[in-house]
Design goal:
Elements: E1 2-5, H1 10-19, H2 21-24, H3 29-35, E2 39-46, E3 49-58, E4 62-70, H4 79-94, E5 98-104, H5 108-116, E6 120-129, E7 132-140
Parallel strand pairs: 4-5
Antiparallel strand pairs: 1-2, 2-3, 3-4, 5-7, 6-7
Length: 142
Amino acid sequence: MIQIINIKDKDIIEKVEHTFPSFFSNTSIINDFNQNAFTKYFIYIEKSNIIGIVNYFDLIDRFELVYIEVIEKYRNKKIGSLMLEHLIEIGENKSINNITLEVKIDNTKALMLYKKYGFSIVAIRKGYYNGIDGYLMERKMM
């Protein structure tokens, strides 16, 4: 089940930050909401366990996917696909122009997922990930 998170969901936010410590070690969802009017989050819950998260920016006419993660033991069960499909559906309902994202060039599983959903490489970001190149990818929506 997918659930949207907003700034009032303090108990859920605490669980999310605990579940994904590598992403939230230097930031917090509350600070993100307070500092960025465009940030949005939703989570994937199964049997009351938070097992996936998406963070994206809703930039009026386009989305920028910031972060998508599934807990390792739940990977390869189509949860990432379900969350990406949900993001695309939100974008279709808002009639956005495109969704963009950055991904490390050696993240083959993520690249396969994004390509499966119509994302294409539009640029290379030299050294974007601490010296490792990244791809800028885009999915046109209209």
